[in-house]
Amino acid sequence: MRKPIILITGANGEIGHGLIRSLSQSSQTDKMGLDLDNLDKSIRPHVQESLQGNILDRNLLERINAEFEVSAIYHLAAILSTRGEFSPMTAHDVNVGGTINLLHLAMEQSISRGQPVKFFFPSSIAVYGMNSLDAKNLAGPVSEDEYRHPETIYGCNKLYCENLGIYFSRFYKRLSAVSSHGRVDFRSIRLPGLISTQTLPAGGTSDFAPEMIHRAAQNKPYHCFVRDDSTIPFMTMEDAINAILKLMEAEEDSLSRSVYNVTSFSPSAGEFRDKTLTYFPEAKIDYIINDKRQSIVDSWPAQVDDSKARKDWSWKPKHDFDSAFENYLIPEIKKRYEI
Ligand code: SER
C-alpha cells in the first residue's frame, strides 16, 4: 500500500515554514517536505517525511508517485522576482517547469486514487503590470482580471502557471474519450508582499518592508532600496497562512474562480519607516534607491480588490496596519531577537 501524504515543495522557504507548522495542527494526514536543501531543523518535527531534491528531477517525482498517495500538494518552490531577473532562464525552468511537473504528478495521483487531488499555488501581485506610475496612482484597487501585463519573468511565470493550473483542472486532454475535468482541484491566491517574524525573504522585490523591521530590531542600519512614496499591498505571514488554509478548506461549490486576490494593508515605504521608528526610535533607516528594483515595485498595484475572496470563502485578514505591528510583528520579532 502507498503511504498517504500531503506534499509541500519549497518547504524551507518563508511560506513553507509557517504553513507546515499550521498544517501539522490542522491535518491528520502525514506531511512530506521537499526542498533543494536538507529540511531546516525547525520544520523537521512537523513532517513525517523529508526529501532533499529538485522539482525538475522527474525521476524523483516518479518515485514519490510510486511510493506515496498524495491527497494535496502545496507547491511553494519558486525563484522570486529580483533573483529571477538575474537569471530569467533558470527562473523559467524552476517556476514553470517545476509547476508543470507537480501538476502532472497531481493528475497521475488523481487517476490512480480515483479522487481529486487538491493543489495550492501561491501566485503574486507580480502578475500585474501597471504600465506607468500615473496609471498605478489612478487605478484604485485592482481586481483579478485587470492589468495582467507582468514586467518580470517571475510575474510572467506566475501568470502562466495560474493558467496551467486552470488547464489541468478543467481542460486537460480535452479531446480524449475520458474527461479529466476536476481531477486536479487547483486553487491559487495572488499574495501581496509578505512579512514574517521568523524568516527573511530571499531574492524578492517586496523585501524592503520585512528587511526594514528585522534590521531595526537587530539595531542594524537599513538602506531602503525604494522611494518613500512606494506603495504596494502587504500582509503578515500569519494572515497569508490563514488565507491559504481557508481557501483550501472551502467547499468547491462556493468558489466562483480558481485564482483570488487577498490583501490587508497598503502602506508606503515611508509609512512603514515611520511605524517602525515608533517601536525602534533609535533605528537608522535611510533611502538608497535602486532604480531597477524601484521600477518593479512601481509596476505593481498599490492596492488590490479582494472582494471575491471575501464573498466566496469569507476571507478577512486578522490584522490591519496598526494591529499587525502592535499585536504580531513587534512582539514576535522582539521574542525572536530576544529584545
Ligand atoms: N514577494 C514577491 C517578490 O517580491 C512577490 O510575490 O518577489
Short description:
The chain has 339 residues and is an alpha/beta fold. The chain contains 12 helices and 11 strands.
**What is the straight-line distance between the termini?**
50 Å
Strand content: 15-25%
* Tally of distinct domains: 1
Mean pLDDT: 97
CATH architecture, by name, is 3-Layer(aba) Sandwich
Number of strand segments: 11
The secondary-structure class comes to: alpha/beta
Q: Can you list the ligands bound to this structure?
A: serine
Kindly identify the CATH topology: Rossmann fold
Could you characterize the architecture of this molecule?
By secondary structure, the protein is of the alpha/beta class. It has a single domain (78-336), classed as NAD(P)-binding Rossmann-like Domain (Rossmann fold). The protein is built from 12 helices and 11 strands. The protein has a 7-stranded parallel beta sheet, sandwiched between helices. Helix 1 packs across helix 8 and helix 2 runs parallel beside helix 4. It is globular, with a radius of gyration of 20 Å. The protein starts with a strand and ends with a helix. 49% of the residues are buried. It binds serine (SER). Residues 80-81, 124, 126, 154, 191, 193, 204-206 line the site of serine.
